[in-house]
């Protein structure tokens, strides 16, 4: 569906993106784009959409005009009801558009149709844009920080809906998000960018195993926990926590038993994206020194 080779984007003299590897995103794959602020995520999307000049190659299976995209900022006319805005964009009456009707029901958006855009809450505004993007039913659909600025509950609800909608569909998705927990259920592959370069690319499982082992146990940091964790492979994580890499079952069993005896609660994970990203980044920075 999408392929990048030797892709480079510069803004003036600043190189914002430089992807030297060949990256291929197959039809139906759901890809999460992860990276710190300024890592080049939006720039990559702009290159896919031909919104910035670039060097190298971007191969698209469908024409740019057919790609559906939800960018960070969207504004619509505040003067007319949302229903009219939608109909102007869709180019037909909502009742003639089956997918639009289904999406309006799916997102429980019926009540909002009579309101003006400026009277919608942040979450409702995002729903509107999502409905309009999803109505296109494009085989390649891009969401750039759909949930930024929304509270935790609204974010979680919107992402659950997205996941439910796309679960059985063969749509290729590109999803940019800073909220890792959102990506856990929605995407199968991850592209990690940092300072315009590729840190790694692969399935969530592959990348977790590569940087965090088969499983990891995570628990609160305190002096006793620190003592127990000594002698195990400690992973990089937030300062108030300890994360231990467990590649062998016996090793995990021993550690879990010691934690239980010390009355320390732990979480066992084989897919925590945040832990994986933290360790992938540390590894990448280490290699560059
Ligand atoms: N129009 C522009 N002119 C000059 N520099 C730009 C422009 N757009 C982006 N940049 C720079 O390019 C780099 C990559 O920006 P980009 O917006 O792609 O990052 P991002 O990963 O999407 O960040 P964020 O998570 O903050 O949205 C940054 O250093 C940014 O300052």
TrEMBL record:
<protein>
    <submittedName>
        <fullName>ABC transporter ATP-binding protein</fullName>
    </submittedName>
</protein>
<dbReference type="InterPro" id="IPR003439">
    <property type="entry name" value="ABC_transporter-like_ATP-bd"/>
</dbReference>
<dbReference type="GO" id="GO:0005524">
    <property type="term" value="F:ATP binding"/>
</dbReference>
<dbReference type="GO" id="GO:0016887">
    <property type="term" value="F:ATP hydrolysis activity"/>
</dbReference>
<keyword id="KW-0813">Transport</keyword>
<dbReference type="InterPro" id="IPR050763">
    <property type="entry name" value="ABC_transporter_ATP-binding"/>
</dbReference>
<keyword id="KW-0067">ATP-binding</keyword>
<dbReference type="InterPro" id="IPR017871">
    <property type="entry name" value="ABC_transporter-like_CS"/>
</dbReference>
<dbReference type="InterPro" id="IPR027417">
    <property type="entry name" value="P-loop_NTPase"/>
</dbReference>
<dbReference type="Pfam" id="PF00005">
    <property type="entry name" value="ABC_tran"/>
</dbReference>
<keyword id="KW-0547">Nucleotide-binding</keyword>
<feature type="domain" description="ABC transporter">
    <location>
        <begin position="2"/>
        <end position="220"/>
    </location>
</feature>
<dbReference type="InterPro" id="IPR003593">
    <property type="entry name" value="AAA+_ATPase"/>
</dbReference>
<comment type="similarity">
    <text>Belongs to the ABC transporter superfamily.</text>
</comment>
């Amino acid at each position: 569906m999408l392929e990048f080779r030797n892709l480079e984007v510069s803004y003036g003299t600043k190189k914002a993106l430089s992807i030297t590897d060949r990256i291929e995103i197959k039809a139906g794959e759901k890809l999460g784009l992860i990276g710190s602020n300024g890592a080049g995520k939006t720039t990559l999307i702009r290159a896919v959409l031909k919104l910035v000049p670039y060097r190298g190659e971007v191969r698209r299976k469908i024409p740019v005009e057919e790609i559906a995209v939800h960018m960070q900022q969207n504004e619509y006319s505040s003067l007319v009801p949302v229903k009219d805005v939608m109909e102007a964009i869709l180019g037909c009456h909502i009742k003639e558009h089956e997918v639009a009707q289904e999406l309006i029901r799916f997102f429980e958006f019926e009540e909002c149709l009579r309101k003006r855009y400026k009277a919608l809450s942040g979450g409702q505004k995002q729903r509107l844009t999502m409905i309009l993007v999803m109505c296109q039913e494009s085989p390649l659909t891009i969401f750039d920080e759909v949930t930024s600025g929304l509270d935790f509950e609204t974010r979680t609800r919107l992402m659950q809906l997205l996941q439910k909608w796309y679960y059985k569909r063969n749509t290729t998705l590109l999803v940019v998000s800073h909220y890792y927990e959102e990506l856990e259920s929605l995407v199968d592959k991850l592209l990690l960018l940092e300072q315009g370069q590729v840190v790694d690319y692969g399935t969530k499982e592959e990348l977790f195993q590569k940087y965090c082992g088969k499983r990891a146990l995570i628990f609160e940091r305190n002096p006793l926990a620190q003592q127990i964790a000594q002698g195990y492979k400690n992973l990089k994580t937030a300062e108030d926590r300890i994360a231990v890499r467990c590649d062998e079952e016996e090793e995990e069993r021993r550690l879990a038993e010691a934690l239980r005896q010390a009355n320390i609660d732990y979480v066992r994970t084989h897919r925590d994206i945040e832990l994986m990203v933290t360790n992938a980044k540390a590894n990448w920075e280490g290699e560059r020194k």
